[in-house]
Amino acid sequence: MAKDKILVIGASGQIGVELTMALRKIYGNANVIASDLREQNPLLQGTGPYVSLDVMNKEMLHVQVIRQNITQIYLLAAILSATGEKNPNLAWNLNMTGLLNVLDIAREEKLHKVYWPSSIAVFGPTSPRQNCPQQTIIEPTTVYGISKYAGEFWCNYYHQRFGVDVRSIRYPGLISYKSAPGGGTTDYSVEIFHEAMEEKKYECFLQEDTYLPMMYMPDAIRGTIELMEAPASKISVRHSYNLSGMSFSPKEIAAAIQKHIPDFTISYKPDYRQHIGHKALMIPWPVTIGVGNRSMI
Ligand code: NAD
Ligand code: AKB
Description:
The chain is of the alpha/beta class. Helices cover 38% and strands 16% of the residues.
C-alpha cells in the first residue's frame, strides 16, 4: 500500500502545532501537510509543507485533497467554548459545516482515516460527577458542547452508513507550553504558568474552587496517535472515546506553582467563562471524566 499522506486542518492552533510535529516524526515531513486559515505557526516553519485553507470552502478543500493525494485528515479547526458563547452562530456553523465537509470528502475520496476531536464539553450538569462512564447522560448546554455532541453522532453516522473510518477522543482541557490555547474555558490553566513566570501574579477568570478535567498535551498527542494507529477492527466506539487525566481547581494549581515561585499570587475575577463552567460546560466540581487509563480500545 502507498504511504499515507496526511492533511492537518487547523495546524496553527494549540493542538495542531504539536500534533503536526508528532505526525511528521512518524510519517516524514513531506507526508504531513499543515493547513490553517491563519498563517503558519512559527514553530512549524521549515519543518514541512503548509497550505492556506478554509475548511468552510468545500470545493477548495476537495481540490487540495485530490491534488496532494491525501489519505488521512486530522480536523482541528473549531470555535472553542468561550468564543462559542460569544458567537453561537459562528461556532455552530464552523464546527458543523467543517466536519460535514471533511466527512463528505472522506466518503467520496475513500480516505483511509479521519480524526476529529470532541471534548469534555459534551458533559453537562446531569452527567455523573465522578468516573463518568463512556455511555451516560449527556446533556450539553453550551453551543460548543452541543456542536461536539452533534458532531459525535455525525461521525458515527458516516461510519455506519458509508464506512468512513473516523475516530475521535473527548479531550479534557489541554495544558501545553509550545502554542497558545485559542478561546476555551480551560485556557486559564495555561495562562497561569506564563503569568507566574513573567509577572509572578495571575488574575483568574474562574472561581478558586472550579474543578475542571485536564490533561498534559504530550499525553493527549500520544492518545491520539495510538487511537489512529490502532487497527480499525479494534475501534468499538465511533462516537468519541472518553480519555481521562486529572481534575484540579485554580486554587490547587496556584498552590502547586507557589512551591516553585513562593511569591506568586493569584486573585479571582470570575467573568462570563465562570458562567459557562457553572452552567454546564465542564463540571465545576471534583471529577475525573473517563476510563482511568490510556487504553481506550
Ligand atoms: P485552536 O483554536 O488553538 O486552533 C484551531 C485552529 O483552527 C486555529 O489555528 C484556527 O486558525 C484554525 N481555523 C479556524 N477556522 C478555520 C477554518 N475555517 N479553516 C481552517 N482553519 C481554521 O484550537 P485547539 O485547542 O487546537 O483545538 C483543536 C480541536 O480540539 C478543536 O476541535 C477543539 O474543539 C478540540 N479540543 C481542544 C481542547 C483543548 O483544550 N485545546 C480540548 C478539547 C477539544
Ligand atoms: C475549552 O475550554 O473550550 C476546550 C475544551 C476542553 O474543549 N479547552
